[in-house]
Model the fold of this input.
Amino acid sequence: MRSISENQNSVKTPCPEDGAPGKPAESASASGSVSASAPAAKPPGGALDRYDIAILVELQRDARLSNAELAARIGLSAAPTWRRVKWLEEQGFITGYRAEIDRRKVGLGVLAFVRVDADRNNGATTKALEDALRQQPEVISCHYISGAGTFELQVMATDLDAFSRFSIDTLLNLPNVKDVHTSFSLGEVKAGGGVPLEHLRG
Done:
């Protein structure tokens, strides 16, 4: 399954004044700095080691950690921790930082899973539909799928009436859409989970 959703959150290293991971603190971490033999900076194209994996784990849990807090958690001093975060950003392992918003708190009571059947599956028409789906703010994710259908969408709306209007007035009128099939979430068991990283530990 391949996501076609574009990540619109570009990486922005926090300013040195804010104490976030972009700032190399002057003092060593609370847990003490590692020995001189411990790896500090990442060479271009280098493989992920246990410190990189630990950084990814911690920033997935809390991306607002200061660099000093992050260093203390992974067992490195501040400066090499900062360099590693920068390397992970530059290499594309970290693609952005953003706030997670409770959809219900902002009035989005409906979460729908929508399978879209395309009328013709050729390159030009599929690209036109991809581009159109990316422009819809109600569509929060879109994936190519195997089996029946072409795309699987997650769509948010304020209520069922709003979703119905979006489906009839917008979704069914997008280029190359043949049909849509919808299921609604009745309750979230797990949402916003981080990327699993255990396989990297070896």
Notes: The domain at 16-90 is CATH 1.10.10.10 (Arc Repressor Mutant, subunit A). The chain has five helices and four strands. Residues 59 and 65 are 7 Å apart (CA to CA). Residues 1-18, 23-38 have pLDDT under 50 and may be disordered.
